[in-house]
Amino acid sequence: VVLVGLAIVSITAVFPPPGGPASSASAYAGESSPAQTAKVVKQQHVIVNDDNFETLRSTIEQASPGVTTVIELNGNYEAPVSFDTNYITIPSKADIWLSVPDGGKALLQRAEGSKSNKAFFSLMDGTSSSLTITNGITYQNSFTMAYVGTGCSLTINGGSFVNNATTGNGGLIYANNGTLTINGGTFTENSTSNGNGGAIYANDTALTINGGTFSKNTANGNGNHTGGGGAIYANGGTVTINAGSFADNTSTCEKSTWSIGGGAIYAFDATVSIGEATFTGNKAVTGGRLSGGGAI
Known about the structure:
mainly beta
């Protein structure tokens, strides 16, 4: 069967309540386990393989709350220049998973010539929305990919995130009092200008990294207290790094400014825990008055 454009499959699964029977389907319908006590998990599977950015945007923005919507991508999804002042909004209480089929790949980016100052995806403050990105997806040559607002969560299970940039904080991700989990992926040559966090800016956020490679990301500062955290800048919150690689990331600032440092990671008033991560060739470069921490 060849599916073109948009195909939708809805799945409703019923699981036993806590402490209930573990495997017998007939037991769920029995008097000893009333159906109304069971946990109902709903999932919608949508296939978007028409290379159409508008199809992707509308599919996400029409997702239902309380339902896991798995969107399968295979192709190139380029936001036109006319979309520069907008972003894809993850609906309130929606749970979006972006995936690709075995052997497939998906490219997300803004069109050449875009001058956007908006994140590609926005998880707005207080909406309790979540977004998961899986292996096989590439986001490149664009502005910040995601804003993760208060009470929202972003999970990255793999993928490639290359050459994205912003003027301000967070070349790839800006998280504000949310939850950010990275289980894998390649984060390369993302950058900021006059800001902090070449790849990630995390403000009062629970950031957990269980794997992934961060290389050649840069925080470029040209004003006081900028240019911190070539890969990651954390202001408050928690940073837990259980595994991962940080190589050749750079924090830098202009002459005669109060610079920060942290070639790979800069943490201010944050709780940091580092396990099996490796740090190689990271550096803090400054012509300013303060700097330090080639790695952290």
